[in-house]
Amino acid sequence: MRFYSTNSPQQTVSAEEALFHSLPADKGLYMPTPLPHLGADFFEKIAGQSLADIGFEISKALFGDEISTADLENLTHQAFSFDTPIVELEPGKTSVLELFHGPSLAFKDVGARYMAGLMSYYSNRNDKEVNILVATSGDTGGAVAMGFHNVPGVRVSILYPTGRVSELQEKQLTTLGGNIQAFEVDGSFDDCQAIVKQAFVDPELNTHLSLSSANSINIFRLIPQGFYYVRAYGQVRKYSKPVVFSTPSGNFGNLSAGAMVQQMGLPVAHFVAATNLNNVVPAYIKTGLYATKPSVATVSNAMDVGSPSNFVRLSHLYSDGYDRFKENVSGYFYDDDETRAGMQRIDDQYGYVACPHTAIGIMGLEAYLAETKLDYTGVALATAHPSKFKPLVEEVLGRPIRVPERLAILADRDKQSIRIPADYEVFKESLLQSVS
Ligand SMILES: *Cc1c(COP(=O)(O)O)cnc(C)c1O
């Protein structure tokens, strides 16, 4: 498997290059080529298989001889130490695919952990420690920190703006220890990002350390997300109905991952792109015009994206253009009042507590099934555990909700961070000290 940039499809790079240098020099995005075709018999035999088993089988098809079977087996079983169960809301018609049983309680764990495993594999093969630098305003940092925790051959330095992340988010960044070092910056998120950018172009630092980013547009965060669509298909095949997936979307990585496995042969009848008021993709599907706009703040804030970076990937996957796109994807969007009302109604009707993003996914699925009257079986992706949005969920439902043990215990752990001013030279000095 090689990777082309969406801006220059004729040239390709290796998997290792695409993994460690997320962004091609021409500012496009990497896409895998060729995508292997998994035959119909592959999808027949996966019914009872775990996420790790399915990830292993697909990884073999993707990597071929590039990575040994034993190494791939090891990697996938370590990355996917948790499952992605289906919960039925209305049997045969509507179910929820829970993607939040990993360490940071959000689906981003799936991509972060697989990418971490791959980076560890290559750093061991090259006998070279990799240093990941990330600036975070909250959630991404948590998934990356937890995804890379205790991964051999990889050290992670996370920069976050002091006082501007939630208490729980800060605990996720600062209490792990080991190979995860948090830098608490007296400044804004932009200051953190500026420091990281300067580090990547600092020749002196780059001679001492092998630096890489865990950027969210890295293609190896998307590839493993395809595995849970396949796993879910195996779980709902028993209904013998066409399958539609509804994906709550912001940057459209999750939906691109679904479209990618569809190209690999997964029999997906249709996708629903469900968004909040940041609705440029639903608007595109309706009008054929793609117009990005500044993002607006909503209660489903992990989807507040006005210019989704993965739209270009989706367009490449549906390369025959707008008609092909529209044939495969429908769009629905909801404002905050509708989201709150949806969370409440889903709780009343099904006894299911959904985070705001998940509620949008469920509502989009219900709307599509009701409008088309198709006898499909629908799967809405649940992207985060409701307790990650505890104040909102409790306010909407009017009662306390349960916080999973692994999140609750963080509250009692001691924070460990290196506090620095928003000054590149100070950061560089303390980074060099902390890794020596
Ligand atoms: C990141 C995120 C999304 C959006 O996923 P994309 O791949 O960016 O479309 C949805 N829900 C939650 C909880 C998220 O953290």
UniProtKB/TrEMBL annotation:
Catalytic activity reads:
O-phospho-L-homoserine + H2O = L-threonine + phosphate
Q: Which keywords does the record carry? A: Amino-acid biosynthesis, Lyase, Pyridoxal phosphate, Threonine biosynthesis
Domain of life the protein comes from: Bacteria
What biological process terms from GO does the record include? threonine biosynthetic process
Which PROSITE patterns does UniProt cross-reference here? DEHYDRATASE_SER_THR
Q: Which InterPro entries match?
A: Ser/Thr_deHydtase_PyrdxlP-BS, Thr_synth_N, Thr_synth_N_sf, Thr_synthase-like, Threonine_Synthase, TrpB-like_PALP, TrpB-like_PALP_sf
Q: Which residues form the Tryptophan synthase beta chain-like PALP domain?
A: 97-371
Electron transport as a keyword? Answer: no
Residue numbers carrying N6-(pyridoxal phosphate)lysine: K108
Where does the record place the Threonine synthase N-terminal domain? 2-80
Question: What molecular function does GO assign, one term?
Answer: threonine synthase activity
Cofactor(s) listed in the protein's UniProt record = pyridoxal 5'-phosphate
Q: In which pathway does it act?
A: Amino-acid biosynthesis; L-threonine biosynthesis; L-threonine from L-aspartate: step 5/5
Q: In the UniProt record, does the keyword Transcription regulation occur?
A: no
What EC number(s) does this enzyme carry?
A: 4.2.3.1
Q: Family, per the entry?
A: Belongs to the threonine synthase family.
Identify this protein by name.
Threonine synthase
Gene symbol here is thrC
